[in-house]
Design brief:
The chain is of the alpha+beta class and about 100 residues long. It has one domain. Helices cover about 20% and strands about 20% of the residues. The two termini are about 30 Å apart.
Amino acid sequence: MPFPPPAPPPPVASYSISTNLHGAKLWTLFPPECAPALLELLKEAERSPLGDGSVDVRSWSPERRAAFEAAGMVQVRQERGETIFMYAELPNPVQYQVPCHYQR
């Protein structure tokens, strides 16, 4: 193949549908207006000792969490068999609540 395939669009610029087949996920949803503040948090996360670039809302102070909730942040627990539609420009970190031990 002479050229590599095009890179997929970044998650913040795409649409997706997620159907949960097993386990549970906790989605943290932010309105698009929160994106600038989240970008600052991503920059902080990249500079952290772990350096994985992820933002874990579970580690936030009560004050930071309250500020984002006041701005429209919500959490949705997705159970087995449920589907969630994510629209473009909606930052949406997800944490797996129930381990999925898929055996082939």
